[in-house]
Amino acid sequence: MKKHDFASEPVGRLVLALSIPTCLSQAVNVLYAIVDRMFIGNIPGEGALALAGVGVAVPVTSLVSSFAVLIGLGGSPLMAIREGHGEREEAKRILSTSFISILVISLFLTPLFLLLKTPLLHLFGSSETTFPYADSYLGWYLLGTPFALVSTAMNSFLINQGMSRRAMVSVMCGALLNLILDPVFIFLIDMSVSGAAIATVISQGASCAITMHALLGKSATIPLSLSRPRAYIIRKTVMLGLSPFIIIATDSIIMILLNTVLQMYGGPQNGDLLISASTIIQSYHLLVMNPLGGITGGSQGLISYSYGAGNTKRVISTWAHVQTLATVYTVLMTVLSWSGGHLFISLFTKDYQLAQVTEHYMRVFTAMIIPLSFQYNAVDTFTALGQSSVSLPLSLFRKMLFTLCLFIIPLITSTGGSAFYAEPVSDLVSSLVSTTTLAIVLPRLLRRRQSEGLKI
User: What is the pLDDT of residue 22?
Assistant: First the structure.
């Protein structure tokens, strides 16, 4: 597969070549979760309750997965910057240290979350009827933590070497395998939600194997070769990866808080119904927003490389091309959300009441994804430039605003469903703040970079 030349290829062509495969990879990656929930929601006689149970478990799985982002999106821009600066050996050390770090993290998190899963599920909004489903799904899913974290983290290093197609193949093969195995384990072998989790673990193992084969192969510009981990690289990786890590980790916390508020204000009769609706809405939201993250994050390597090489004009051009692509994508997804959301919902449930509630709040939840594309692009641009001191506060601001709205809006209206309005409010305000920050800070950063020559 072709390895792209960050130094000389036209920016527009590069952005399409990097962001589109990464966007598709993220869309397919979401299918791991969506396919599970789709089949689970259609289990005869227990689909709705099983879906609510898995919905409670999902924030825990997302929280675990966020550690892959910490290392993957923290280390891969550093590698690309050093490669652009001509420091190939340092780039190899960054890759090696990052691989060892995520492997150690995954081996530590697996037993930790297995030990804590029961109290976490009770804390995160599981009712007596949904707990058995949540516990069964999460217990099996956590056994695949090393596969999931290594695959996700190392895919970022493939993308930032210009090998976005390899990363896409890895994710697509795993998702296709999961699509095949889910009905086999859930229905044919009659393993219910446990079968969905086992199918996912096997599929993630396949993705991990393909990713590692690519990094160890001859076509990798910066191949993986193990060396002693460097503490200074770990520090820099964690500092830079902290912003996207907090985005994903706090997304998990927000899902937990959302479920808690829905259960609290929905009461015994409507609480589980609203959580089931939230599970479907969150699935759709992931299917929309993760590819957006692929568009804005897929070209991070190009921004990092251009910044390391001192070519600030290509940095600006890359941002502009990415924003154009992201805006077109979110406009299309907004139209699709409002006109065809019911088709997506029908994949999960045939329950009329649940479908009606879900469709209404799905439109609310996705109302401001167009301006949100500007926030995503701003945060990923600052991350690519190594400016975690800017990207991190921008990420935190949106999450804190969402949390504030999550508690205030239902308190005023006294209805659980109104909690869904916290998303569009925080999306709009944070986008305005992020875009203003980018307009002020980015030109200063690039002028300073030009005045420093090739010094990093």
Answer: 75
